[in-house]
Amino acid sequence: MPIISRGFKGRRRDDAPRDRVPPGQYVTDDFPVLSAGPTPHTPLDQWDFTIVGEVDERRRWTWDELRALPSETITVDISCVTKWTKLDTVWEGVSVDTLLDGVETSAEYLTVFCDGGYTTNLPLADVTGGQAWIAFAYDGEPLEPEHGGPARLLVPHLYFWKSAKWVRGLRLTATDELGFWESNGYHNYGDPWKEQRYWGD
Ligand SMILES: Nc1nc2c(c(=O)[nH]1)N[C@H]1C(S)=C(S)[C@@H](COP(=O)(O)O)O[C@H]1N2
Ligand SMILES: [Mo]
Hints:
Layout: E1 26-27, E2 48-53, E3 59-62, H1 63-68, E4 72-79, E5 84-95, H2 96-100, E6 109-114, E7 119-123, E8 133-138, E9 141-142, E10 152-154, E11 167-173
Parallel strand pairs: 1-5, 2-11
Antiparallel strand pairs: 2-3, 4-5, 5-8, 6-7, 6-11, 8-9, 8-10
Bound molecules: ligand MTE and molybdenum atom.
C-alpha cells in the first residue's frame, strides 16, 4: 500500500519536505491568481521602469533597456498569506541589485508602484543582497498578464503580496510608508516563517 496517494494534485501534498513549508501553509501545484483589481495591459512601447524618490538622480529603463541588462534564473519557494506555498518555482529576472547599482541614497525604505495603482512597502535591506528581482519570465515563458506580466517584483522570502505584479518602479523613501495591503490589515513586514500575516502577528 502506498502511503502517499497519487492523483491528489493541487491541494495538500503530504510528501512535502516540512522544513521548506512555513507554518500554517499547505503545498500546492497550482498557481492561483490573486489580484485586487483588473489586469492592466500596458503596451511594451509605453512601459518603463523607474527608480525615484530619495535618489541622487532618477533612473529609467525602457522595456528593451531592462531586457538588455544581465538577468538570472531564480528557483525559489513562494508563500501566499492565503496559505498556499509553491515549491521550486522557476523565474527569470533582473536582480534589484543590478538596478540599484550606482544609485546614491540615504533612504532605508521603498514603495513599489505598479500599473493599476497597487503599492507595497519594504525595507531597502530586503531587496538588496540577492533577495529580489524584477521577473519577466516564469517556467521558461514570458510572464502571463494574470501573474504580473510583463514584469513583477519577486521577493520570495516575504509573503507573496510583497511581490508586486505589473511593477513599474521603486520609490525610495526616508520613512516607511504603508502600501495597499499593509494599510488594509496585512502585516507591515510579512515574514512567512514568523507567520506575520496581519497587524499584531
Ligand atoms: N499589482 C498587484 N500586485 C499584486 C497583487 C495585486 O492585487 N496587484 N496581489 C498580491 C497578492 S495578495 C499575491 S498573493 C500575489 C499573487 O500573485 P499571483 O496572482 O501571481 O499568484 O500577487 C501580489 N501582487
Ligand atoms: Mo496574497
